[in-house]
Amino acid sequence: MSSQSKRALIVVDVQNDFCPGGSLAVARGDEVIEPLNKLIQEFLERGEPVFKTRDWHPSQTKHFADFGGAWPVHCVQNTKGAEFHRALLDDLHIRVISKGLGDEDSYSGFDGTDLALQLRRLGVEEVWVGGLATDYCVKNTVLDALKEGFRVKALADAMRPVELKSGDGARALNEMRDAGAEVVDHTQLRTQDYVDPVIEAYKDGIDLTLIRRNLALSVDERFEQLMSLQQLAEELRAAGKRVSG
Ligand code: VGL
Ligand code: ZN
Fold first, then answer.
1. Does residue 153 form part of some domain?
2. Domain range holding 150?
3. Does the Cβ of 137 fall within 6 Å of ligand 1?
């Protein structure tokens, strides 16, 4: 049970420019949102870390065709195209990793970022990866995660390829598998069965749903609950004085 390793979810580049209507639109790219939202919610409910990476380019970079690179202008910092798709779940607990800040084609969420450091500090051993695009940023993020020593589940039904050449998506999945990633459909994963080792340690006689609900609260919501408890305590104390006095 508590032999289960600590996990994190990495949602790669689900940004407007990679979705239908964007400047580097991935066919059916928005279809990754539904499965990823489900996973985001499940991870957050259990207090497990969730990361979103974003392609975050300067307006002039050798990554773009205009300056010698391969790609149309996309995901320029602080533009609408660089924003996460509005249907993708947002939450205070989600950590955002910005990448592609320079002139290199840095496709991986680990390239030039502190993602590996953050994962290690959190004690994470296994990462689940999905998003856009299968044959570029997802693939490179998965390969780097393996190089960094993490176990990887590549969420095949929660990613879509650019496919400059047809077949690139399938080839990318094979590369990930050959490098040691477990390629899975998210529906195969029994995420609900996960048992948090901390909860497990206190298990006797506690209400797990209460703890899960509390883990999902924001700091503000927790503060509000604390204040109302304090108020209740004061009222009880005042009532006690009236009775004894
Ligand atoms: C990506 C091409 C260029 C990606 C980023 O997120 O997969 N692809 N920049
Ligand atoms: Zn890019």
1. yes
2. 7-193
3. yes
- Write out pLDDT tens, residues 167-208: 999 999 999 999 999 999 988 776 555 566 666 666 666 666
Cut 0.70: pTM above it:
yes
Q: Would 2 be classed as within a structural domain? A: no
Among all ligands shown, which has an atom nearest to the Cα of 24?
A: 1
Burial string for 167-200 (b: 16+ CB within 10 Å, else e) reads ebbeebbeebeebebeeeebeebebeeeebeebe
Angle between helices 33-45 and 208-215 (to 10 degrees): 120
| Catalytic position from the list 55, 75, 99, 196 | 99
Asked which of 109-113, 194-198, 237-241 is least confident by mean pLDDT, the reply is: 194-198
Instruction: Clarify whether residues 125 and 215 are in a common domain.
Output: no
CATH code, 140: 3.40.50.850
Residues 166 and 213 in one domain: no
Domains in the chain, number:
2
Residue 1 inside a domain? The answer is: no
The answer to whether the CB of 12 falls within 8 A of the CB of 53 is: yes
**CA 169 to ligand 1 center in whole angstroms:** 13
For 75, the token pair is: 């995901």
Ligand 1 site, residue 13, Cβ cutoff 6 A:
yes
